[in-house]
Task: inverse folding
């Protein structure tokens, strides 16, 4: 028979308990204040952007979204060119980066020995530390000429060259080179998150699948992917949000052409790139407010991407719990 001893209530223990309670209250207050401050800051940024964009909103209305013209001389402005460039470059980058990131994460977490995985993971994550302006300069001075001279001609020699989006003259600055630079920028983020997800999969689940006769790939597909699916979806959409918001590197590699290109090899422009390159040189209030209108559209697109990400994560989580 065991006996339970209780600490006698003394002035010292009472003060200690009060200190613990005060610490809990202080921690809760700081956490709530930080969350509210973040929400307030986001609200203030959104309000300021929409306030400065309001003259253009009043003048052009929603037709601004599907208007292609951008002419500061006649003060005719529209966002369609830049919405197209933003979505196309981001989607191309996402399609290329997603399998690359998952493959890197699987190699580092499931295949490579620990002494090899650690330095490779560090090098991959160091890519995220390269400033976007440096990556953009590398893209236009080194990577762009290689894409123009080797990659794009090779694509045109394959069956993909029959598609209109891969026609035209190869160029070192355009939609496709900018999308490849974005791919390099989002791979480290997505692969790092996926690697952490794969490492956290309970080992007994994988061992159980192998013990039941599954191959290594079947265990990865049926256990690892299923367990980490919500996080993978969030990582991919986080990379998409990163691609949507990038401005400097895209500005240096996309070509800054105010027209919707017929080929992905041709120069184009994006929302972030246009805001970064033209706002400081705006010559009229209408032009400045139109540029802020582009920024407001970019905020809405990013918000929509985050909402979709949350929806997908919840759906994946429900499906996993139902299994």
Result:
């Amino acid at each position: 028979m065991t006996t339970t001893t209780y600490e006698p209530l003394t002035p010292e223990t009472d003060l200690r308990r009060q200190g613990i309670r005060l610490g809990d209250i202080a921690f809760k207050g700081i956490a709530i204040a930080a969350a509210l401050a973040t929400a307030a800051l986001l609200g203030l940024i959104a309000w300021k952007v929409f306030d400065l964009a309001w003259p253009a909103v009043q003048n052009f209305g929603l037709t601004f979204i599907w208007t292609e013209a951008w002419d500061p001389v006649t003060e005719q402005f529209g966002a369609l060119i830049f919405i197209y460039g933003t979505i196309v470059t981001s989607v191309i980058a996402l399609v290329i980066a997603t399998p690359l990131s998952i493959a890197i994460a699987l190699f580092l977490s499931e295949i490579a020995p620990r002494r090899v995985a650690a330095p490779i993971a560090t090098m991959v994550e160091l890519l995220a530390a390269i400033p976007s302006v440096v990556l953009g300069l590398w893209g236009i001075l080194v990577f762009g000429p290689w894409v123009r001279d080797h990659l794009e001609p090779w694509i045109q020699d394959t069956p993909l060259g029959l598609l209109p989006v891969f026609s035209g003259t190869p160029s070192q600055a355009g939609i496709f080179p900018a999308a490849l630079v974005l791919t390099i920028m989002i791979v480290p983020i997505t692969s790092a998150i996926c690697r952490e997800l794969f490492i956290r999969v309970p080992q007994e689940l994988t061992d159980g699948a192998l013990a039941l006769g599954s191959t290594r790939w079947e265990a990865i597909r049926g256990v690892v992917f299923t367990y980490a699916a919500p996080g993978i979806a969030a990582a991919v959409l986080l990379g998409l949000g990163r691609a949507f918001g990038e401005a400097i590197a895209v500005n240096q590699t996309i070509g800054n052409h105010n027209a919707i290109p017929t080929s992905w090899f041709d120069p184009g422009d994006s929302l972030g790139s246009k805001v970064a390159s033209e706002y400081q040189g705006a010559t009229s209030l209408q032009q400045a407010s139109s540029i802020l209108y582009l920024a407001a559209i970019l905020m809405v697109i990013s918000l929509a991407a985050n909402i979709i990400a949350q929806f997908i994560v919840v759906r994946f989580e429900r499906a996993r719990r139902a299994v």
User: Anything to note?
Assistant: The beta strands are 70-71, 76-77. The radius of gyration is 26 Å. The first strand starts at residue 70 and ends at 71.
